[in-house]
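Inverse folding, one chain.
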């Protein structure tokens, strides 16, 4: 099995910053794609940012220029650095990792979620 452990959420004022971390552990041959999604109450989960194994990134339009996704392959960890936070960023943030397991099969895993709350 593979487990993703998230941390870094919290309560901040508008304009503040947070850094989210997601560490993967378990039976991993390689990590292909890593990303962050968020879900506000009553809304569907949406993509925030992703990074593939080659370093190509993809961001949701509203976070471009404010959020930065990065990864530390040695630690099997993906980060989301968030600046200039807005109340509309308030949501549960979930890490998603696409890995190749020991049988070379691609499998997706979700983290438990970490809450980000931005006050006005």
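Residues assigned per position:
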């Amino acid at each position: 099995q593979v487990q993703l452990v998230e941390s870094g959420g919290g309560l901040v004022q508008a304009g503040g910053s947070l850094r989210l971390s997601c560490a993967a552990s378990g039976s991993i041959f390689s990590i292909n794609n890593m990303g962050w999604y968020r879900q506000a109450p009553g809304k569907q989960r949406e993509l925030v940012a992703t990074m593939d194994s080659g370093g190509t990134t993809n961001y949701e339009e509203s976070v471009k220029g404010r959020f930065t996704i990065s990864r530390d392959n040695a630690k099997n960890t993906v980060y989301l650095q968030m600046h200039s936070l807005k109340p509309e960023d308030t949501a549960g943030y979930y890490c998603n990792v696409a890995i190749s397991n020991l049988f070379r099969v691609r499998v997706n895993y979700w983290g438990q979620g970490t809450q980000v709350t931005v006050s006005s």
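The chain has a mean pLDDT of 95. The chain is about 0% helix and 60% strand.
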